[in-house]
Amino acid sequence: MKVIEGSLCSLAPLRFLCDEMLNGLAQWLRVAGYDASLPARGSPDRQLVDQARVEQRWIVTADADLLEFACAPFYVLHLAGRDEQARLRELTRRLDLDWCFAPFSRCKNCNTPLYLASDREIRNFHPGVPENGARKVLACSTCRQLYWEGSHVQRMRLRLEAMNSWRDAR
Ligand SMILES: [Zn+2]
């Protein structure tokens, strides 16, 4: 297991609280299978820090102001990259993050763990989606989003693998 000096967060498995500017990055963490929360819109920084401490999450932020909190070395990962690609790369290198940790085990939209949808659910709620007899279909109980191995999911898998190659490129 990788140990990050100074961290008081549980590192196995990694859990995150992304600031509201990093919605896209949070979605990629969820696609890879990590528990990645977003704060309620407009939450004050103090509330963000308290939530991270209670829930043992890394705060992933592009906001350098959060580094001024005394607990910052233990809970705050400040990403200096200017765009999402640069920030994803920085996060990968700093945590040696495995993007193939548990792909498609959480909902990209709302962070809920996914379950295997029944054929009946698929027929009733999403006609047109291939049934589980043919393909595995995963569902989110919160937002009802379905995921199956179509071209969109395949593209995201390729992207996860590509991001994992940054771990070696040191
Ligand atoms: Zn969902």
Written overview of the protein:
With 170 residues, this protein is α/β, with parallel strands linked by helices. It folds into two domains: 15-95; 115-168, no CATH class. 36% of the residues lie in helices and 13% in strands. The protein contains six helices and seven strands. β6 (137-139) and β7 form a beta hairpin. α4 crosses α6 (151-168). It starts with 14 loop residues before the first strand and ends with a helix. The mean pLDDT is 88. Residues 107, 109-110, 112, 140, 142-143, 145 line the site of zinc ion.
Keywords:
Mut7-C_RNAse_dom, 170 residues, Mut7-C RNAse domain-containing protein, 4-stranded parallel beta sheet, binds zinc ion, globular
